[in-house]
Structures are given as C-alpha cells and as structure tokens.
Amino acid sequence: MKIESLKKLFIKKYGDSEHDLKVFLAPGRVNLIGEHIDYNGGYVLPAALEFGTTLLVRQRDDDKIRLATTNFPYEKEFSLKEIGEEKTGEWVDYAVGVMVENKKSGCPVTKGYDLLYHGEIPNGAGLSSSASIEVVTAFALQTLEGCETDTVKIALLAQRAENQYVGVNCGIMDQFAVANGKQDHAILLMCDTLEYSHVPFRTGAYKIIIGNTNKRRGLVDSAYNERRQQCETALEILKKETPDLNYLAQLKPDQFEKLANHLVDETVRRRALHVVEENQRVLDSVEGLKNNDLEQFGKLMNESHESLRYLYEVSCNELDVMVEEARRIPGTLGARMTGAGFGGCTVSLVHEDSVEQFVQQVGQAYEERTGLKAEFYVCGTGDGVKELKEDE
Ligand code: GLA
C-alpha cells in the first residue's frame, strides 16, 4: 500500500492533529545460509528484504498509547504507566515488549503516541514479521524520544523483547538483519561477537525466489527449544575436552571430527555436526560470492538443506517437496529451506530466464503433491530499518 493511502487511513482512525506524522519502515529478512547457527555463536548470512512493516506514528498530548494494524482487527489502548502490565498473546505484544525494554535501556516512552502498523510480510512464514515489528517500534520510539538510535543496540533490545516479554527463545539473527540490512548486500554476521560486514550480493542474471509453503509452522517453538538444548548438551560434553570452547560453531570441521566420538548420543552428535559444517558453509559461501562463483553458492545452499533435513531434522515434507521441485528447474543453482523450519519458506537461486517456469511448475507440482497452494516472491535485498522522509 502507498504511504499516502496509509496516511489517510491513519487520519481516519486517529483523527487529524497539529503534530507531525512520522513514517518508519523495517524490512523482513531471508536467511541465505547459516541456519540454526546464531545461538551456536557462528556465522550467518541473512539479507533484509525489500518489503516489511511500515509504522505511522504521531505524538499525542496526553499519556495514552494506541496501537492498531491494517492486518488484523485487534487493537489496544493503554496509558504510559500501564505499559507491559498485560500480555495479550496478540501481535501488540511485540511492540509492547519493546516499550518495556526501551525503559530498561534508559530510553523510556515518556509521551503518548498513536501507532498504525502495516505489514507486508506474510505471518508465520519464517520471514521475520515479528522481528520487523519489534525493530520498527524500537527505532521509531527512540527517534521520537530523542534517544540515540544505534541499530546494533536496537537489534539486541528487540531480541530481549522477544525472549523476555513475548517468551520466544530466538537468537539474534532476525532482529539483526532487520535492523542492519543494506540494499544489494547480504549481512555476514558473527553471532558471538556481533562483528558484521555487508557482502555485495551481486547475483547478475540470477534471482532470489522465496517460496512460501503456506504450511503453518506447527511445533516450531518446542522443537526449536529442543534443538537448542541438544546443542548445549553437545557443548557441555565437548567443553570437557576443549575448555576454551564457548560455542559449538567455534569448532572447525577437522577439529570436530577428532572430538565427535565423545558425543555418544547419536542425535546430539548429528546436531553438532550440522552446526560445525553449516558454519563452514557460510564462510565458503562468502568466498563463492566474492569470486562471483554462484554455482558454488548454489551447491552450498543444497548441502545446507540436506543437513537441515537429515542431521538437524527441522525440515518437513512440504519444504522437502518444494526444494525438490525447485531443483528440477534447469535454471536453479540451489534451493533450501530458510528460517527455523517445520514449514515457512524456501529460498532458491534461479536464472532470470527460468523464473516464470519456476513459479508455474514448482507451484503446480507442489500443489499436486501436498494439496497446498504455494506463493512465490521474486525479490531483491533491501535496507535495514529507517525513517521514510517526505522526499523518498
Ligand atoms: C528463527 C530464529 C533465529 C534463528 C533461526 C534459525 O528464525 O528466530 O534466531 O535461530 O530460526 O536459523
């Protein structure tokens, strides 16, 4: 939706006022490679998308906060002193969690605001619609409250909101990518130290296609926590052999090979093997990108999927079917699931001449085999959170 139409909606909802109406945008993200690595302290390679969550916000003259979205009917109103008192289980929790964290971090919400959100990221698809709400809220309120807007600190704050207020034990990748993306670049993030760089994502004639399986991501929270737990178990055991080890992803594949026999539990060993190899794949992918070797990049995407399917066991039939069909298209260099797994999206690297065929054939075969209708987004990489000024 155009900003002008959103402004009209805002005024219809909250009325006209003398105060300035400000507009902010935080993107969604796609993880190109490096899955289930962030909480294991290794490298990930996500990119911000070109679409996300737009937030229109205006200061009020009293102490009320009002939240609404164009996406759902649910709305909420409370006073400044009631911030965080009631957890609703609704989308507003992402915004309220950020307000709670803003206060803890020394930038409390001191004025009333009217907020209207407009999300273009499909919900529950693993493209970080929640991180996008969190980051846009933190950035907007810190800007309006006159605080310093450091996008690395904002990512950490948004992650705390998700961990502590919403109660989802996610890593740092999503909030970081949403806050720090850069157009035409991927973000190489070291999740332990938060050192990062923008890697030019020059894919020339190749396009990124995100395929939404439209499979609701059931089980994701419990299975996610279980994977985290298994990685911690592996770390505890390996730490006895290598006391300096703080995270599993610090192990290189050859180091791990020598230690693997200490992991007697087969499942735990497979989880750890995924982490060590996936981390190495991220580094190899970046080399591939630097050398313009997209075939190498695609091959690593494929390997990543197999590892998530067989070693980490976070794929599902729908993701596997879509990936398999994607790879049948002649112009596809690589295809994998992206995000936490158990549903959500795939990401494929496809030659521009094959995009039409991809969308048509993969969509049809996927529907025939799963009974679900897929959606596809052919997309480029966008910027991280920002304020949209009049002339943009
Ligand atoms: C979810 C989490 C991230 C990350 C991915 C898996 O998106 O929010 O922190 O762990 O899963 O890579």
TrEMBL record:
<feature type="active site" description="Proton acceptor">
    <location>
        <position position="174"/>
    </location>
</feature>
<feature type="binding site">
    <location>
        <begin position="124"/>
        <end position="130"/>
    </location>
    <ligand>
        <name>ATP</name>
    </ligand>
</feature>
<dbReference type="InterPro" id="IPR013750">
    <property type="entry name" value="GHMP_kinase_C_dom"/>
</dbReference>
<feature type="binding site">
    <location>
        <position position="130"/>
    </location>
    <ligand>
        <name>Mg(2+)</name>
    </ligand>
</feature>
<keyword id="KW-0963">Cytoplasm</keyword>
<dbReference type="Pfam" id="PF00288">
    <property type="entry name" value="GHMP_kinases_N"/>
</dbReference>
<keyword id="KW-0547">Nucleotide-binding</keyword>
<dbReference type="GO" id="GO:0005829">
    <property type="term" value="C:cytosol"/>
</dbReference>
<dbReference type="Pfam" id="PF10509">
    <property type="entry name" value="GalKase_gal_bdg"/>
</dbReference>
<dbReference type="InterPro" id="IPR006203">
    <property type="entry name" value="GHMP_knse_ATP-bd_CS"/>
</dbReference>
<dbReference type="GO" id="GO:0006012">
    <property type="term" value="P:galactose metabolic process"/>
</dbReference>
<dbReference type="InterPro" id="IPR019539">
    <property type="entry name" value="GalKase_N"/>
</dbReference>
<keyword id="KW-0808">Transferase</keyword>
<dbReference type="InterPro" id="IPR022963">
    <property type="entry name" value="Galactokinase_bac"/>
</dbReference>
<comment type="pathway">
    <text>Carbohydrate metabolism; galactose metabolism.</text>
</comment>
<dbReference type="InterPro" id="IPR000705">
    <property type="entry name" value="Galactokinase"/>
</dbReference>
<dbReference type="GO" id="GO:0005524">
    <property type="term" value="F:ATP binding"/>
</dbReference>
<dbReference type="InterPro" id="IPR014721">
    <property type="entry name" value="Ribsml_uS5_D2-typ_fold_subgr"/>
</dbReference>
<dbReference type="Pfam" id="PF08544">
    <property type="entry name" value="GHMP_kinases_C"/>
</dbReference>
<feature type="domain" description="GHMP kinase C-terminal">
    <location>
        <begin position="286"/>
        <end position="367"/>
    </location>
</feature>
<feature type="domain" description="GHMP kinase N-terminal">
    <location>
        <begin position="103"/>
        <end position="181"/>
    </location>
</feature>
<keyword id="KW-0479">Metal-binding</keyword>
<comment type="similarity">
    <text>Belongs to the GHMP kinase family. GalK subfamily.</text>
</comment>
<keyword id="KW-0299">Galactose metabolism</keyword>
<keyword id="KW-0460">Magnesium</keyword>
<protein>
    <recommendedName>
        <fullName>Galactokinase</fullName>
        <ecNumber>2.7.1.6</ecNumber>
    </recommendedName>
</protein>
<feature type="site" description="Transition state stabilizer">
    <location>
        <position position="29"/>
    </location>
</feature>
<feature type="binding site">
    <location>
        <position position="224"/>
    </location>
    <ligand>
        <name>substrate</name>
    </ligand>
</feature>
<dbReference type="InterPro" id="IPR019741">
    <property type="entry name" value="Galactokinase_CS"/>
</dbReference>
<feature type="domain" description="Galactokinase N-terminal">
    <location>
        <begin position="9"/>
        <end position="58"/>
    </location>
</feature>
<keyword id="KW-0418">Kinase</keyword>
<dbReference type="InterPro" id="IPR036554">
    <property type="entry name" value="GHMP_kinase_C_sf"/>
</dbReference>
<dbReference type="GO" id="GO:0000287">
    <property type="term" value="F:magnesium ion binding"/>
</dbReference>
<dbReference type="InterPro" id="IPR006206">
    <property type="entry name" value="Mevalonate/galactokinase"/>
</dbReference>
<feature type="binding site">
    <location>
        <begin position="35"/>
        <end position="38"/>
    </location>
    <ligand>
        <name>substrate</name>
    </ligand>
</feature>
<keyword id="KW-0119">Carbohydrate metabolism</keyword>
<keyword id="KW-0067">ATP-binding</keyword>
<dbReference type="GO" id="GO:0004335">
    <property type="term" value="F:galactokinase activity"/>
</dbReference>
<comment type="function">
    <text>Catalyzes the transfer of the gamma-phosphate of ATP to D-galactose to form alpha-D-galactose-1-phosphate (Gal-1-P).</text>
</comment>
<feature type="binding site">
    <location>
        <position position="162"/>
    </location>
    <ligand>
        <name>Mg(2+)</name>
    </ligand>
</feature>
<dbReference type="InterPro" id="IPR020568">
    <property type="entry name" value="Ribosomal_Su5_D2-typ_SF"/>
</dbReference>
<dbReference type="InterPro" id="IPR006204">
    <property type="entry name" value="GHMP_kinase_N_dom"/>
</dbReference>
